[in-house]
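Example 3.2
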Amino acid sequence: MRQEWLDKYDLRLPRYTSYPTAPHFHAGVNAATYEGWLADLPADLPLSLYLHIAYCAEMCWFCGCHTKITQRYEPVADYLSVLFAEVEMVAARLGRKRKARHIHFGGGSPTILTPEDLSRTIDLMRKHFDVVADAEIAVELDPRTADEPYIKAMAKAGVTRASIGVQDFDEKVQRAINRIQPYEVSLRVIDWLRASGIQDINVDLVYGLPHQTEASVIDLVERAADLRPKRVALFGYAHVPWMKKHQRLIDEATLPDVPERWRQYLSATKRLVELGFVAVGLDHFAAPDDELAIALRERRLFRNFQGYTTDSASALIGFGASSIGALPQGYVGNEGSIDAYKRVIREGKLAVTRGVAVSDEDKLRRAVIERLMCDLSVDLDETARRFGQSPDYFSSELAKLKPLAEDGICAISGHVIAVTEEGRPLVRAVCAVFDTYLKAGEQRHAKAV
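Structure, written as tokens:
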């Protein structure tokens, strides 16, 4: 990575899992708005479903998720009863049993549920939604709290994919982020998954953590590859202690500097490709026969709040505290406070407290950004015409991209923009040119590197 890029593009930029991005959600979109949007969904529109399990047994200091720590199951059971009530309310407002092609359990930690409660939750989704036979049902796993009965319950309930949170195998790093998870613990859970018939396994890794070095991150990805996952996600640690106060427990003196973060990312990426994985977008890697790699080759890759996906549904319904949904009309976010979320649902109301309606221009710019994030290229003429705009609609953006092209981050051929392989880590800087909401100097996002 060129030093001048580090100096120029060490910016705070969105991850572009939506457009407009979450910091631009506002209270003008509320529960009443959401109710109207649900009622207006076409009857034949397939859905994706997301369930946020907002509890963990222990706080990982690097975590950026919405979660609450508990050592007792009673709060979890109480939360789950409220989440069930929300599912029933939303299903009633939809008015008929809608097809669902994807179900994703996130958190927090879904493995804090008992096996019985996980099964009951999936049964509830099948009761209220027409879950198609080949639906992907994915669960995020914390190997420290996933036991064999839980894995067997997943398989019996029809779970098809598991995402294993690893972060790093080095004990020194684990201690620095308060997540002690020996390699053998992750391996044991993966063995249970495969023995139960769940073969689609993702592994989540993080670079930029305390005490990590370029050499240690290469070792990390090599050990992760030995687990034979179908997908690897390689995320950069986002140190935002002003937003996540528990991150103040991390000694900042142990964090790698920007050049070291770049070396970690680039070396890990190179090694993953050498090990046979296909680079997908910014931070995902897939086995060549995995559906994500196939979708990339066929240019039918998408991006949503779970990252890169094959899910083409235009309606994602979120359940649980802090969950986010995406509908054709816009985005909605539930109340983030667990206590407030439970109170609102128990009053028989939907829990949406913020969101944003998307305009025609938003949809056009979202299409450009999604193709850049997924394919690393976009034909601006074709995209503009598809949304009823003239070929020169993005003339000002093309002018703004010229300095990035001169730096070698992207190439411009007519109105076709292609991010270079060397520029891949800075694809978000290219996307930001099309983001009319982003303001210079904002501290709402993690750094691009």
